[in-house]
């Protein structure tokens, strides 16, 4: 982290977040601000509750305020969070409200910031699939984009997507702060024997004689028939590899996973892992099958071949670099693609060549330089205009 010490006797920079991925991707910004002597204020929404707190703690951080709002649906989360967050923002009068990505917490934080008259910054702005899916994430991204003053796009393609939607100011290409977090944790695992030992303990008992295939499944659109197809593929692949699946706690995922794969030879169902253990697992795996956006970004940086369990992605750079392939959710297609990578050494080597399409670990410093510049009046649209724009772009 850059050590640019200054005296910031100003309003805090407020981070509104509630999910594990948000904790991972915002932690580098918060740590960098602390080094600079600025005032980060972390407001936890409660969306992922224990996973959010545990992930922050893995970086030596904790939330300053915990709203504890947990609702069963995205609409319920936003509806409950909006008035509470707006009051918090009016009380704290932050220099910036910062949201990340496309979660219910992000869209609630953005709406609350605009209604409270606060300046708004969006980390990981401009990701688009070009369709209505994934829902509601694609809708959330577009809505936040119409409200934000600063748009921190991880790639040139993301910045171009914002411009195509009529956003002309406040766009900065910074790389993705998730890569900052990954490289930070990788360095800590290499230099801290106690941390490495703790991380390895979560993986104890998994045989080493066959390749490790990491799988992560959590997306809303990969439920029902799509999830069944993925689970059947993992069951078939377990005949030739160790399948390691940290199980998402949501009942719509956990129930079918346990029913189909529980007790099956060659399948290792783990609880959600601390970030250090998850990074250690990625570093030891031969292949990852995932529908996660964060894993799509992380895998090229460590040279981990990635099969994306979706028909489309808002992260095409990994596919373009050759590190990732889109394979969908049909059992036969997933099995064929995974076997090709595991059995073809030349293909595996091409996909395992490290690449940094999502940044080189300097995103947090680049973002914070903009957040710490003297600010004037918010340049974002009025509530009426951004609602009109969001409906138009939806």
Question: Would you spell out the secondary-structure blueprint of this structure?
Answer:
Elements: E1 13-17, H1 20-36, E2 40-44, H2 50-58, E3 65-66, H3 74-92, E4 96-100, H4 104-116, E5 120-123, H5 137-147, E6 150-153, H6 156-164, E7 171-173, H7 177-191, H8 193-201, E8 212-216, H9 225-237, E9 242-246, H10 251-261, E10 267-270, H11 275-284, E11 287-290, H12 293-302, E12 306-308, H13 317-321, E13 324-326, H14 331-343, H15 345-351, H16 363-371, H17 383-393
Parallel strand pairs: 1-2, 1-4, 2-3, 4-5, 5-6, 6-7, 8-9, 8-11, 9-10, 11-12, 12-13
Helix pairs in contact: 1-2, 1-7, 1-16, 3-4, 4-5, 5-17, 7-8, 7-11, 7-12, 8-11, 9-10, 9-14, 14-15
Average pLDDT taken over every residue: 91
* Second rung of CATH, namely the architecture of the largest domain: 3-Layer(aba) Sandwich
Distance between the termini: 38 Å
Shape: globular
User: Structural class, from helix and strand content?
Assistant: alpha/beta
Tell me the helix content: 40-55%
Nearest-angstrom radius of gyration? 21 Å
Largest sheet entry: 7 strands, parallel
User: What amount of the residues lies in strands?
Assistant: 5-15%
CATH classification, class level of the largest domain:
Alpha Beta
**How many strand units?**
13
The CATH H-level superfamily of the largest domain is Glycogen Phosphorylase B
The CATH topology name of the largest domain reads Rossmann fold
Question: Strand sequence of the main sheet, in spatial order?
Answer: 3-2-1-4-5-6-7
> What is the total number of structural domains?
2
Query: Which stretches are poorly predicted, pLDDT < 50 over at least 5 residues?
Result: 1-9, 376-380
Q: Provide a count of the helices.
A: 17
Order of helices and strands: EHEHEHEHEHEHEHHEHEHEHEHEHEHHHH
């Amino acid at each position: 982290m850059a050590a640019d010490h200054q005296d910031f006797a100003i309003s805090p920079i407020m981070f509104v977040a509630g999910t594990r991925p948000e904790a991972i991707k915002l932690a580098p910004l918060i740590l960098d601000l602390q080094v600079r002597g600025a005032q980060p204020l972390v407001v936890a929404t409660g969306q992922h509750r224990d996973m959010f707190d545990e992930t922050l703690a893995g970086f030596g951080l904790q939330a300053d305020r915990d709203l504890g709002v947990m609702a069963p649906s995205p609409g319920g989360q936003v509806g409950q969070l909006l008035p509470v967050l707006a009051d918090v923002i009016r009380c704290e009068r932050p220099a910036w409200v910062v949201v990340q990505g496309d979660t219910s917490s992000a869209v609630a934080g953005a709406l609350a910031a605009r209604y409270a008259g606060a300046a708004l910054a969006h980390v990981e702005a401009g990701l688009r699939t070009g369709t209505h899916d994934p829902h509601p994430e694609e809708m959330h991204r577009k809505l936040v984009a119409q409200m934000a003053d600063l748009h921190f796009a991880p790639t040139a393609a993301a910045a171009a997507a914002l411009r195509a939607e009529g956003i002309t100011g406040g766009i900065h290409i910074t790389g993705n702060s998730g890569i900052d977090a990954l490289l930070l944790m990788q360095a800590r695992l290499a230099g801290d024997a106690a941390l490495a030992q703790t991380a390895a303990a979560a993986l104890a008992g998994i045989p080493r004689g066959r390749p490790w295939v990491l799988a992560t499944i959590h997306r809303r659109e990969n439920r029902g028939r799509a999830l069944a197809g993925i689970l059947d593929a993992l069951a078939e692949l377990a005949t030739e590899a160790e399948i390691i699946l940290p199980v998402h706690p949501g009942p719509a995922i956990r129930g079918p996973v346990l029913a189909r794969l529980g007790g099956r030879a060659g399948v290792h169902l783990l609880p959600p892992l601390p970030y250090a253990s998850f990074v250690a697992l990625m570093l030891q795996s031969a292949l990852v099958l995932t529908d996660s956006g964060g894993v799509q970004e992380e895998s090229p940086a460590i040279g981990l071949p990635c099969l994306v369990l979706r028909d489309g992605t808002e992260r095409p750079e990994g596919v373009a670099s050759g590190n990732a392939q889109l394979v969908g959710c049909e059992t036969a297609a997933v099995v064929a693609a995974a076997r090709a990578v595991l059995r073809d050494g030349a293909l595996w080597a091409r996909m395992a060549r490290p690449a940094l399409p999502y940044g080189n670990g300097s995103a947090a410093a680049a973002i914070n330089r903009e957040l710490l510049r003297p600010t004037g009046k918010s340049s974002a649209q009025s509530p009426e205009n951004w609602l009109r724009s969001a409906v138009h772009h939806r």
